[in-house]
Amino acid sequence: MRLQHKVIIITGSCTGIGKAIASRCVAEGARVVIHGLERELGEAIVATLGHDKAVLHIEEITADNTPQHLVDLALKSFGRLDAVVNNAAMVVSSNTQTTDLALFRQIMEVNTLAPFALIKVALPYLQQWRGCVLNIGSLNAWCGEPNLMAYSVSKGALVTLTRNLGDTLHREAGVRVNQLNPGWVLTEREIQRKHQQGLADDWYQHLPSEFAPAGRILWPDEIAAAAVYWLGDESGPVSGQIVDLEQYPFIGRNPAKN
């Protein structure tokens, strides 16, 4: 097992990518702290994974004491902390016309500042076990799209945070920091969002080839499989890296010509 005996906090893990990462981590021998806002969903995940392998914490990721509560729960439940996965995110459609400063600040708080806050609290324990941080970003970090303006900016800032801490914390504390930037992933919430935007219930089964050359978009389990490498010892000393997970070359690609 690739994560045997490791203890991992995974934010935003009651659904979607976070849930898939938590399940894969336990399958690889880890014990996990599940976090989110959906208590019933979180309790169901813990029951499935086993109460000896998973514990649940329900709290807004931006609350002042959430980082400390998550770290304390990991230590109380499992006696150590090896890794943090910053997955919780606020995905909200917004453009220059619909984004006011209050919304922009809220998105930045959830998507960029909350990961930093958790890293700060977790750092002494990650240093003790020469652990790591894995931030979950987005391909939108590189350019964004018109109706995901604030979200894209927040993920761009997360890239810079990862590169900065991936260098400084690795040198100063022996803690690696890396980031996965998934493309379009078929999560429960993505299905719901597109339905709310007026798409048919089976929209994901009829995607144009410029967005899905494989005939489908990514699955959460595929992101989870990639996460295991960065959370385990196999990635060795590698730190400060941003890894794009998409089914086509993102840079230099012109969808109109496909």
From TrEMBL:
Identify the Pfam families for this entry.
Answer: adh_short_C2
The record ties this protein, via PROSITE patterns, to:
ADH_SHORT (PS00061)
Q: Write out the coiled-coil annotation as residue ranges.
A: none
The superkingdom listed in its UniProt entry is Bacteria
- Spell out the SUPFAM superfamilies in the cross-references: NAD(P)-binding Rossmann-fold domains
InterPro entries membership: NAD(P)-bd_dom_sf, Sc_DH/Rdtase_CS, SDR_fam
* Signal sequence range: none
Q: What is this protein called?
A: SDR family oxidoreductase
The scientific name of the source species is: Spirosoma aureum
Species lineage: Bacteria, Pseudomonadati, Bacteroidota, Cytophagia, Cytophagales
